[in-house]
Amino acid sequence: MHMKLKPLVTGIALALMANSAFAADTVEAQLKAQQDLIKQQAAAIEALSRQVQENQDAVEAAVEAVEADSGKSALDKLSIGGYGELHYNNLQGEGGASDKKSVDFHRFVMMFGYEFSDTIRFFSEVELEHSLSGDDKPGEVELEQAYIDWDLSSNLTSRSGLFLLPVGLLNETHEPDTFYGVERNNVEKYILPTTWWEAGTGLIGRLDNGVTLQGFVHSGLETNADAKYSIRSGRQKVAKANAEDLAVTLAVSYAGIPGLTLGGSVQYQEDVTQSQDADAGSATMLEAHVDWQYEAFRLRGLYGMWMLDGDGPKSMGADEQNGWYLEPSYMVTDKMGVFARYSTWDNQAGDSADSAKAQTDIGVNYWIHPRVVFKADYQWQDNDSDKNQNGFNLGVGYSF
């Protein structure tokens, strides 16, 4: 029996050895496959890491390039501002004029700017008027400014785009904390007319003696007999504006004496009707203003006029439209100021017999912060038509 079992044991041993060798080869193959997979995944991760690093390097290079322009970060180059004003009017009509008792968030404005470099800047202003816009709503959404300033030298700047014209005291600077009275004065509302923006291009030059010169070629007004040649209604607001006839505006101001600013502007347009009215022709605007402050006392004044050519404006008495105002004020404390203003204007409105208007305002501004102001004033009107609105106005405004 012993001799018979030996071959069997030997066979079993050889079989086990063969199976063991086969199992070892299988495990080794599996391990190698796993190692190859791990190497492939590692290579993929490494490639992805390189791509991420390259993207990060590109972003950092872009940021560094922006910062290298002026030493500022990209966020520092972005500027955000705005202003707004809420009005309450309580006016009693007489002589056929209507009463006015209303509350209105008159303006909500956001301003955005960006500094591309030390010499190239962008500025914009978007306004919502009367709180709500849309079909049959009282308000409008308006783009009032969107322009590029390019400094050609230290004292010469090119401006191109949509911008406020350099006319009067309020048109370029009309934030509610910068002027007295709840409502803007009527002369700069109806004669100039504030707020007035156009699209075009021009130059701004600043001299060392305090003189600033500005000149622009830009889109023009469009008014006609149906609008009674009203200047204010002629603003096209650069909304698919008719550009048959462009306009030219020149302005000069002097601020070489501390506390004193003197300025004026002239505009010419060959055809104020944009070639739509054969009975009208050219329009010329002249304006001069003064802003003088001595300690707590301040005096502002302005005169403006339009001369419209043609039989159409002349037949309606609209060939000459003019107005002026004087506004003394006094800072009683560092937070409270009082003012008085007398204004008179005649924009004809198609009725030359009794179109002259006059208004006296007195009131107070109280700044709870240099950029936040509460206002109250009382107005008396003395219009040739005897249609007057007298009463008081309240308001609050801010800017930042």
UniProtKB/TrEMBL annotation:
Q: Which residues form a coiled coil?
A: 31-65
Entry keyword set:
Coiled coil, Signal
Name of a matching Pfam family: Porin_O_P
Query: Source organism's superkingdom?
Result: Bacteria
InterPro entries given for it? Answer: Porin_dom_sf (IPR023614), Porin_O/P (IPR010870)
How far does the signal peptide extend, from start to end residue?
1-23
This chain's protein is named: Phosphate-selective porin O and P
Q: Which organism is it from?
A: Ferrimonas sediminum
